[in-house]
Amino acid sequence: AAWKDDDGDWYETGLHIFFGAYPNIQNLFGELGINDRLQWKEHSMIFAMPSKPGEFSRFDFPEALPAPINGILAILKNNEMLTWPEKVKFAIGLLPAMLGGQSYVEAQDGISVKDWMRKQGVPDRVTDEVFIAMSKALNFINPDELSMQCILIALNRFLQEKHGSKMAFLDGNPPERLCMPIVEHIESKGGQVRLNSRIRKIELNEDGSVKSFILNNGTSIEGDAFVFAAPVDIFKLLLPEDWKEIPYFQKLEKLVGVPVINVHIWFDRKLKNTYDHLLFSRSPLLSVYADMSVTCKEYYNPNQSMLELVFAPAEEW
């Protein structure tokens, strides 16, 4: 998740944000006894205004109100990004998703965000003003490529849970502040964590089930159950030939990894117009960014800023 250079600076692979709608990760932090390492920010979404450099527009969710009223009010109170007619058309367009439930959400997998919005009569400006940023923040691609199902899953959680869209930063570098507690917990239960142990091959039994993982050094790892978590492009390379004929695994052909570049910029002074929060850039190049000297306890610096910017989609670069 991150590497330390010779100067002692950490390079992270991305901005690690935790939403209130992530119950499993919060349960993990609780089980590890490290809940205090989540730095929760005020319940807002802050968007840069490309037409007004240095200015931002906010969606503020009132703490006193339950969901979905807090989210609806946050949208209604913002008059800088959407006009009232656009808000009304957007709300009407979302009604099928809100009333149709999970079955409706799952049925939208084959339609892009942009096409779904047009189908529902939502003005293109809503997509341009809000959902370019949201699509790139969730999946690092633009709304003409992203499945609407992804957006609806997030919106449903945000609208159903009072703190669903509330965000937290980790209070320091991920290897030491999150990964090491996980390793220590596994080892305390008698487990092992091996580093520099890349899997070279998935070896199968005659019935097609997994027999073992063969590592790069030739070691064979056997077990009662196997879990393989890897980027989709790497998993495709390691997929056993016998599995490639199975319809379930053939679906992998439609999945493509999205290249992303995480940029760190250290400044010799404190920048103006930064917030103790995640910022949605709304630019053609960037997804989200943050001044980590403000948002993260370990990187705090009262005199110098450190911007971390997610450059996506980055395939052309």
From TrEMBL:
Gene Ontology BP annotations: carotene biosynthetic process; carotenoid biosynthetic process
Cofactor: FAD
Membrane topology, from the record: Peripheral membrane protein
Gene Ontology MF, one: phytoene dehydrogenase activity
One of the record's GO cellular component terms: chloroplast thylakoid
Keyword set includes Chloroplast: yes
Annotated metabolic or biological route of this protein: Carotenoid biosynthesis; lycopene biosynthesis
Sequence ranges assigned to domain Amine oxidase in this UniProt record: 3-315
The entry's keywords: Carotenoid biosynthesis, Chloroplast, Chromoplast, Membrane, Oxidoreductase, Plastid
EC number: 1.3.5.5
Reaction(s) catalysed by this chain's protein: 2 a plastoquinone + 15-cis-phytoene = 9,9',15-tri-cis-zeta-carotene + 2 a plastoquinol
Subcellular location: Plastid, Chloroplast; Plastid, Chromoplast; Membrane
Keyword Cytoplasm set for record: no
Family membership noted in the UniProt record: Belongs to the carotenoid/retinoid oxidoreductase family.
Quaternary structure annotation from Swiss-Prot or TrEMBL: Homotetramer.
Protein name: Phytoene dehydrogenase
Species assigned in the record: Petunia hybrida (Petunia)
